[in-house]
Amino acid sequence: MKGKSWLYFNMLPEKDDKDAEYIWGRIQINDNRIIFWHASNDAFTKAVNDRKIKGTIELQCMKPNGVDHIRDALINAQKMEKPEGTKIHVYVVAAPKYALEVQAKDYKEAESILQKVSETAIKTITTAGGTGVFQRAK
Predict the structure, then answer these.
(1) CB 90: neighbour CB atoms within 10 A?
(2) For every residue of 47-77, which 3-state class applies, written as one string?
(3) Which CATH class is domain 50-136?
(4) Contact 80, 120 (CB under 8 A)
């Protein structure tokens, strides 16, 4: 889209407003015109309500096929059973460190899932003869 600049914003209601409505969108300034692009309220509600937490897990396995065991541990952690609407992301920071990221509806649920995910990965790697340590990101 054409435009010199984009301004992203959200407008929040007053504290005492009982029938509050949220507006979320962006403004495009283009040749003395201001165009407001409105995003759906569902997108705004999802962005506001979802909580994301992270942690780092260090997995090591010195066996000849240790890489396969580490991969299996991370896949098991990512594919574990979780509530609907929850997302688990696993990615490499720098071997042997891997990031675990959980997105859920609230922090308590996200913390619980992150703990289960890390325990699953550590249990899988220790069963295969390796070691694992989890550290919650602040």
Answers:
(1) 17
(2) HHHCEEEEEEEEEECCCCCHHHHHHHHHHHH
(3) alpha beta
(4) yes
Using one digit for the tens of pLDDT, what is the confidence trace for 48-105? 567 889 999 999 999 999 999 999 999 999 999 888 888 999 999 998 999 999 998 8
User: What residue type is assigned to position 15 of the chain?
Assistant: K
Token representation of residue 10: 């959200």
* 54 φ/ψ angles, rounded to the nearest 5 degrees: -135, 160
Give this prediction's pTM. 0.66
CA nearest neighbour of 69 among 4, 26, 12, 129: 129
Torsions phi, psi for 4 (to 5 deg): -80, -35
User: Of 136, 137, 138, 81, whose CA–CA distance to 113 is shortest?
Assistant: 81
Determine how many CB atoms are found less than 10 A away from the CB of residue 100. 24
